[in-house]
Amino acid sequence: RPNVAVFASGNGSNFEAIARANLPINLALVVSDKPQAKVIERAHHHQIKTFVLELKNCLDKTDYETQILNQLKQHNIDFILLAGYMKIIHPTLLEAYPQKIINIHPAYLPHFPGKDGIGDAFKAGVSETGVTIHYVDEGVDTGQIIAQQKVPRYQTDQLEDLANRIHKVEHQLYPETIRNLIEKGEL
Ligand code: GAR
Predict the structure, then answer these.
(1) What family is this (predicted)?
(2) Are 141 and 103 in contact, with CB atoms under 8 Å apart?
(3) Per annotation, catalytic residue among 45, 75, 105, 134
(4) Of 9, 112, 123, 166, which one has the fewest beta carbons inside 10 Å?
(5) Whose CA is closest to atom 1 on ligand 1?
(6) 36-88 pLDDT, tens per residue?
(7) Is 105 part of the annotated catalytic residue set?
(8) Ligand 1 centroid from CA 57, angstroms
């Protein structure tokens, strides 16, 4: 079973979906840049180790990622799943994990990349948005797409309705996509 690290900055509902999916992986570590993130509590609940590191306590982004990389090495991490991790991945990690870092984005890329994929699609008034799983590269939500699913946005939707609909799709699509990649030997 591959050793996997999940990186998350917030609530961690996608981490939770992955942890509960009985995937053929060893969820070895949760990495967070936010000491108060709910994902940390969730990780402890699943008896998964956590590593919290704030950028403000590091010399720079290279130092930050080097410290994370040391942790990943200590836990023999084979691949990384970003689940609401709100930082750009820099070359230190990208070069150590080529094609081994995967992200979930709450929009149908290349539409609405960035920090607020749900809110941006909502404000744009589209009738359809979605969820994308993709490999991470040096850009913002630009890496090779692995899987996508469309999600309707209805006239009567409040932002929260659309967000809930998207999260529901995320919680199913992320574990399923990881399972498929492992079964195909691509991870
Ligand atoms: C998810 O909707 C995820 O797609 C999004 O953050 C949310 C995290 O929710 N990620 C991004 O916007 C990345 N640019 P969670 O903490 O409950 O999993």
Answers:
(1) Belongs to the GART family.
(2) yes
(3) 105
(4) 123
(5) 84
(6) 999 999 999 999 999 999 999 999 999 999 999 999 999 999 999 999 999 99
(7) yes
(8) 24
